[in-house]
């Protein structure tokens, strides 16, 4: 076509002018292609391509875009169209004389032009279509199709294929056959033809293409409306069904046509039912001709059945292409739903068509529909994809699309049919191992399935379906691991218990790698312990390693200790620990076995009855010397720190048990293990040092003096055990346990006290006590233990006050005032007990430190006194105040006097404490003021003035403790002896005290009974106490 046709008028835009001329040319091409007499298949398909291009041109024209790239694209399309038009004009002019070779050459030329038009459409940018998303999608899809378009050329043959031979012959035999328009609503897709396409068998497409090209003047319609309109008019594009296809009885197309005696063909089932309706066979007539039948024989009409089958196949192929076109272009929800419904019907009627559906690309279009907002469309698309997923090839194709992740997200839909359809699809997809693995990689997918499974009360079907999906996904080990991370343990445990040896090893390895919640640890222990222990017996080195790691985690939750013991694990662990030592093999399993055993022992699973717990096949128990000495041997032989930690934990558990402590103490005493344990106090590992301190603290009550000897011979000790925190409130466990250990070593050991004194640790202790007391809200979990340890170290010095250096230390640092302040200010029971015990020790020294009044200095001064006449201005005589209890000059600092320190009221207040040890320690401190070496009578009067009698009586009433009663009775006896009638009256009026005394007299120890008897005698001497005497008798 000459280029002059593209010259612009003054009143038109470039887009409008080019598009108008181009649409006219495309209309002519469509008409020419449809009228071709030869190679109708190919020319009809060529015409349909140009028809679709005209729709694209209309959309570009409607957009009103005048961008340069769009104009260039239309100009290029015009050139291609001119070339195609010239070829088709030549075809029309030579229609009668054109040879097959010339026709084939024309088709090949048109194929090249169509490919290049596809390239031209591809360069049009999305911005050309403004907000028309459908237009952009359709034109890009058309571009890709045209780029790949190929036309199959059939060689001329005298004999037609078998599937076409019967059709003309059958029509010749039935000259009156009439065509009936098909009821399908979908046009033939312009998708590239498949090998067995029968599109050319539709003569009516010519009329459709011609009429469609005549409608190109509708420039302003939207693409969505165009797609819907074309679909509704597509009935004429289908190959018609001929009258002979229909059964006269059912008026439906026949599936199994049979011919009866009259020569009329019927559906077998229908005519059989018709014959059966006659009671007398002789009365049977043909339902169409009404002639009487001699017999009811039926002959299969094989030719017609074959023709109908071929007709259905061709029509279904055409319908599939029409469906592809609808799903590609889009449209209203109703149109898309109708397309999917017909697609389902085709696939259900002809399962073999599923292959064709996959081949023409409908699967990808269905997956795209899953992103639409319309719930009905999404649900229908899911159901159709489910049908396509029945075959392995379909699963593979679906796996290459976003269908899996999109379907997973639909599990959270509030629309139940979508959830159910999604689950059915996932069940089918999860049957493939590769797709099941992909499903596991969808973020949050497994979690949604697990949640759906356990919401059975709200949706039973969804729960069961989700359970089936999860079971299918178990075929991928990595999915099992992900399930466990979300708390779903059943797959792992089932595979561990019932799987192959390889799978068991895999599951045991996973179990050793994942982190379990405590509740899950118990569940795993209950179900998996037997099989894990069996694997320890029979497995190889790799299996045993994985099992030990898994059991180490399971045993870390203490309630599982008894489960593992009942499963028979202890002997395996002990033998593993000692066997590896003998053969000098890898220490990994030894560390893990010792860790598991330590966890089990710390759980207290046996109520600390370790003496009866079998540890070896030879009959040794956990508390036997064999086991203990082997553990000590392992510690002595420089084993790794992490193993040492576990061994120390085991010994700690053994020594906590009264019946198993003796072997541990004996082993430590008889070996140099005490040196090693003391050296571990300085270990840089916090865990190792902490474990060693705990063990040594327990041993201190058995071999405390030995430990002090080792401690004082170790470089840097004991002073390094006293460390100040980096900041207030930042006390570590190691710091707290270290000072607590020093505090619990025997107080009477002067060697340790002298070592602490020589290292100048006391100022640090005093400062740290003050800081701990002042930390307030900044305290952490170890503050109380740290303060108790510091006070304990301070108090231990009071046990060796017989040494002059210790005495000077207590005086110099004013221990009396410090401990008195602790009694008043502390909230810790242990600090209160320790402070009272320290005051007791200090107060017991007061009688020895009290100084008599210095009278010599006074007599010497009298020599220099002025005469009486001159003494009017002299100062009054100096008065020296004496301690009423200690009968001398006392002070709170120099003589540790509790009276001067005003400690008595604070101690008496402690008698009301709930802790019996605090009360007992307080009574001991008060009793130092009633010793025979002091003025007992004045002391009693002073204490009574502070209501001491009532406080002591109250303590006896509230605490039923033998040791406390002994101390309280001793104090009460002093009050009765020296307190006069007032004390006797107070004691005698307290009836509850009398009951306590009688109880002690009858059930107490010998010394307690003796003290109780003395008090009862004092009470019986009182004449006003006859009633009480009668009561006590």
Plain-language structure description:
By secondary structure, the protein is an all-alpha fold. Helix content is 64%, strand content 1%. The strands form two sheets. The chain has a three-stranded antiparallel sheet with strand order 4-3-5. A two-stranded antiparallel sheet has the order 1-2. Residues 1-12, 156-237, 581-585, 857-861, 863-877 and 1021-1033 have low confidence and may be disordered. It comes from Carnegiea gigantea. Pathway: Protein modification; protein ubiquitination. Residues 240-318 form the U-box domain.
Work out the helix count.
Answer: 51
Largest sheet: 3 strands, antiparallel
Q: Give me the secondary-structure category.
A: mainly alpha
Strand order of the largest sheet: 4-3-5
List unreliable stretches of 5+ residues: 1-12, 156-237, 581-585, 857-861, 863-877, 1021-1033
Percent helix: 55-70%
Residue fraction in strands: under 5%
**Silhouette:** elongated
Number of strands: 5
Radius of gyration, in angstroms, nearest whole number: 53 Å
Cα-to-Cα separation, first versus last residue: 141 Å
Instruction: State mean pLDDT (0 to 100 scale).
Output: 81
Task: Break the fold down into its secondary structure elements and pairings.
Blueprint lengths: L13 H21 L5 H24 L4 H26 L6 H23 L10 H15 L14 H12 L5 E2 L24 H9 L9 H10 L8 E2 L14 E3 L5 E3 H9 L22 E2 L1 H28 L3 H17 L3 H7 L2 H8 L5 H14 L3 H8 L3 H7 L6 H14 L3 H9 L3 H9 L6 H14 L3 H9 L4 H9 L2 H13 L4 H21 L2 H15 L5 H6 L3 H14 L4 H15 L22 H12 L4 H16 L1 H13 L2 H7 L6 H27 L20 H12 L5 H9 L3 H13 L8 H14 L7 H9 L2 H11 L3 H15 L2 H4 L6 H7 L41 H7 L5 H12 L8 H10 L2 H11 L3 H17 L1 H9 L2 H13 L2 H15 L5 H7 L1
Antiparallel strand pairs: 1-2, 3-4, 3-5
Helix pairs in contact: 1-2, 1-3, 1-7, 2-4, 2-5, 2-7, 3-4, 4-5, 6-10, 10-11, 10-13, 11-14, 13-14, 14-17, 17-20, 19-20, 22-23, 23-25, 24-25, 25-28, 27-28, 28-30, 29-30, 29-31, 30-31, 30-33, 32-33, 33-34, 34-37, 36-37, 37-40, 39-40, 40-44, 43-44, 44-47, 46-47, 47-48, 47-50, 49-50
